[in-house]
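Checked the freezer inventory, then went back to the computational side. Two predictions to log before the end of the day. The first one is the construct we discussed on Monday; recording sequence and tokens without edits.
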Amino acid sequence: MGLRAPFHFLLLLLRRPGGPFRGLASEGPREALPVIRIPQPLKLRREARARGGPAPRVSVPRPGPLLIAARRPEFSQPLRFTVGRWERAPLASRGWKHRRSRGDHFSIERTHRLVPALPVGAGAVEDEAVAEEEESGTGSAFAALGLQPRVLDALCQAMPSVVRPTWVQRRAIPPLLSGHHLLCAAETGSGKTLSYLLPLLQRLLRRPRLTTGPAPRGLVLVPSRELSEQVRAVAGSLGQGLELCVREIGGGRGMGSVKSQLSKEPLADLLVATPGALWKALKRQLVSLGQLCFLVLDEADTLLDESFLELVEYILSKSPIAENREELEDPFNPRAQLVLVGATFPEGVGELLSKVTDLGNLTTITSPRLHCVMPHVRQRFLRLKGSEKVTELIQALKHRGEDNPGSSGAILVFCNSSSTVNWLGYILDDHKIPHLRLQGQMPATMRAGIFQSFQNGTKDILLCTDIASRGLDSTRVELVINYDFPPTLQDYIHRAGRVGRVGSEVLGSVLSFVTHRWDVDLVQKIELAARRRRSLPGIKTFVKEPLPPIEFTPDLASDTENVGISN
């Protein structure tokens, strides 16, 4: 203590203004002392208070809207920022394979506030004739694509709300009218059904019927009974104004019903069928495909899958597909125009098509938004234990429509198996939640009309398998819940495409429950694609060069247990 006292006394003398060493203390640079700065908003308020005026409003810079909103803010990504292709992204789902990640969540936010009819960046109409037609207001924009007035009148009567063609329709209608074989790959809900129905029905008007038996001049092949009913309804409404008869056959109804539909007067000009039902009709010679003007494979990615591939090969072998455009115009030996429509395509499609036509005559149309995360749909991912999914589902269903009180609140709940659909149905019954169920193991009489009842608003909740994810129109759906995370990225694309479709009144959102380690792998691919603003990886979109030819046997074993026949 005695040693420290003189030192402290010396410091006090140096600090005193009138001390003996004041001259020495003022000479030379002083040691820098810490500076306490006043925040700018507080400083402005104090200056304004001193002047007696109102305090000015201070604008504090904000991070702006988010592209990725994570529970942990350090993993959120602003909308104005994009992760580079080779840059390592800080994924919010990177640690989701660990059990401690349960309860974590993140969402891919909306970047567009409208359901787009045209792709991002394609707002300018490229075709000058279409632009002039829209600006003048003297006719329909469809007229500039080459459609006849009779077809336009039928479209106006059947669908008065359709006044402007979508991007897919602008690209698909002209080459189909010109007689090109077409492969159209576009995102779900982009208007692909009208893109092939309008030009092909116009072609039917130019080709007369040459036979009196059940030989349709047009064929649309679809993978499910529900989709066949939907396509038949759209084509039938258009056919009424064109005096064309549209028939539909699906599996599970017995051959008596199929025979009745094919022989009913007037005979079908356009036939909508599932592969199993048409295969059995061809085997029993109830129908002939010799007079086909066109053949459409709708949802071709599903039809060319293993469950339907053998049936589709047999149907193609019985169809007179044109080798070139000249054969399409031959009045004495007519040939069929081939159209493939879908969101993804398997690798073997080139090999299959090379057996029936020249791939050089195939026109390919690919949407710029194909396989991309939809920018107008909010997609939320929630990491849960398997035992927690039921509780989260009940909460989501009971609080539906709270964000939009005047909305319909229609919800699709997807499961990976029929047994899960039935089990969840019993749980919803216990909670007094009205719903419908749709799964592939139901009898045909039970499945008939279930999705139509859901569309009509009989019930607002539909428990279903992936049978409802392909092609079905779901413009009133506002929320898709993946109770079971889909097994592939293709399935996720189709499920998420049930909301935010062309014609939807609301943007919609997707909620996915993530429980398994293999689910996390897919979630990380989706999140990375969203952060980089790129398409989802590993999905084929183009027809590859055909493989070396193999022996093609058109005859199939008449085994009714084939997995595709029941559809």
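The second is the one RB wanted added to the comparison set:
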Amino acid sequence: MMVTLLGATTLVLVTLAPWVLSAAAGGKNLKSPQKVEVDIIDDTFILRWNRSDESVGNVTFSFDYQKPGMDNWIKLPGCQNITSTKCNFSSLKLNIYEEIKLRIRAEKENTSSWYEVDSFTPFRKAQIGPPEVHLEAEDKAIVIHISPPGTKDSVMWALDGLSFTYSLVIWKNSSSVEERIENIYSRHKIYKLSPETTYCLKVKAALLTSRKIGVYSPVHCIKTTVENELPPPENIEVIVQNQNYVLKWDYTYANMTFQVQWLHAFLKRNPGNHLYKWKQIRECENVKATQCVFPQNIFQKGIYLLRVQASDGKNTSFWSEEIKFDTEIQASLLPPVFNVRSLSDSLCISIGAPQRSENKPVIQDYPLIYEILFWENTSKAERKIIEKKTDVTIPNLKPLTVYCVKARAHSMDEKLNKSSVFSDVVCEETKSVLLRCINYVFFPSLKPSSNIEEYFSEQPLKNLLLLTSEEQIEKCFIIENISTIATVEETNQTDEDHKKYSSQTSQDSGNYSNEDESENKTSEELQQDFI
């Protein structure tokens, strides 16, 4: 009987021995966790993973991390001896723009091998969380206050807090029709709503430069108030008039007073309440008309917001819808200044920038295109040229004809979409072809000296020395009086009453007279002598 029992005991020990040996050998039966995911939302760092089928019961999990340049691994705070499949390591101070490595293992009586997670950069991995939203109701509007995603001391978005853009979806609580509004400020006002109506909305943020789009906030609902006795002013616009801006608006009731306030547009990008940053325009305080005039020089170059409020002495309206006011867009585009120089059959126009007025903003930093109109002084038939260049030639004109020119500038920037008025008219007479021939022949400055000419013996090179392209085309010849030349050669004498013309000397002063021969000649006869 004892032998039988002893044999049974021996058989039991033999059966258990392989399990015990396996456990003692380093836990080959305990597998590593798999499919580790890193979720980063704003400044919250979460790890999630799947446990293996064998890692059940009292199994725990631990992570190590390694920074760039480190040879050893360090225990990851917040992720040691975790019994679930999730841990938070947000307390770790990291450079969010540097890569980090992680590894995980399972632990029981023994430990599994390490499972390494692909390295990642926290900023690239991070997602934008929902912004914080606060609502205020008016009778026909809702004011939305948006705080950027993350905490006040956010590390992840520390450099991008002012770069967030926001969009929202809004709908009546009693309807499923949604309206999407893109690119709103951190403090935004939705107008043209119905009084005493519940509206619901949700907001999300985005960083366009990083191509990151966040998730929507929870849905917020609010009911608009009872309709106010005085409506706000409507249809606000700004126009330029002389050295002033004129702000106009529409209003339903008479005998009202109005005030106008302004705000730097960039302040709307900053989170927080801007209620006390609006400033009064002194010239537009307690005005009785539905417009006010204020000088342009009270605003420096920039973008502003304007709003108007009405009052009857007892009641006050809500502020009007805010309009954007860009001083560059409202700036005047002055007409160009230009100089006109005439040739025999063309006009050369040089366009210059207009002079800045001391107090008036002038558009000069944008590309311009010029519209040039010209016509014969005796005709009303205008011809048009459109040019981007500032040096323009109008060819194929009649000689000895007066032409008049005026021009205006157009902005090539689509945002400005402005044109100047036309400049003053400038008139100039084209020159005579014959006169230019005479100048060409008798002014030595147009003929190269002999020592230069020997280096430019070829005709194409000689042409480079001429002043204009017209002078290369027009050719003039002088046939001297043969009998006069023969007489001079035979007598070899100089008569003081007779001056010989010569187009060949380079020592000539350029001043000529022949009083005896030209005294009684008409202009036609003088011209005939040169033909």
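For RB: The mean pLDDT is 76. The longest strand covers residues 198-207. Let me know if you want it refolded.
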